[in-house]
Design brief:
The protein has 167 residues and is mainly α. It has nine helices and no strands. The chain has a single domain, classed as Tetracycline Repressor, domain 2, CATH 1.10.357. α8 runs antiparallel to α9.
Length: 167
């Protein structure tokens, strides 16, 4: 069911996720879904958790080579992994990041796991890590929503922002 919900969101965006649409995707009647999920918000929580898990895995994979050698992980490696993951699944990313985070309903430790590579790269400076995340999230959301003029070199803008935050 979560896979079908994800497919629906990935194909048509977060607004397309309704219990009726999900039931149609699964070929069942909508009331049958309520045996598994109390409401649409519960389905969204599962998708948000999935997105956070995938973000954590992408960030962990980006920092792994540096952890093995003991070298500090450059912010560029983490930022590039974050951007690539978000752009690979833009609708899921938007669902997971554009509303309040249902922390109370997420698996314990998941949010912390997703943040840990960035925290390590920022020497556990929470303010700096938040600033880096805010930059990365803002750039990604603007890119996803097509808010930059056509032909702008977003990779150059991305590099300039990350470089400024590395100093």
């Amino acid at each position: 069911m979560v896979g079908a919900a994800r497919a629906l969101v990935e194909k048509s965006g977060p607004a397309a996720l309704t219990m009726r649409a999900l039931a149609d995707e699964l070929g069942i009647k909508a009331p049958s879904l309520y045996k598994h999920f109390p409401d649409k918000a519960a389905v969204e929580v599962e998708l948000i958790a999935l997105s956070l898990l995938e973000t954590a895995e992408a960030m962990e994979a980006a920092e792994a080579p540096y952890l093995r050698t003991g070298a500090p992980t450059p912010l560029t490696a983490l930022a590039d992994a974050y951007r690539a993951d978000a752009l690979a699944h833009p609708h899921l990313y938007c669902l997971a990041t554009e509303g309040p985070l249902p922390r109370h309903a997420l698996p314990e430790g998941l949010e912390e796991r997703a943040a840990m590579p960035l925290l390590r790269a920022c020497d556990f400076d929470m303010d700096r890590a938040r600033a880096v995340w805010a930059f990365a999230h803002g750039m990604v959301v603007l890119e996803i929503h097509g808010r930059f003029p056509h032909g702008v070199d977003l990779t150059a803008a991305w590099r300039a922002g990350v470089t400024a935050l590395e100093d």
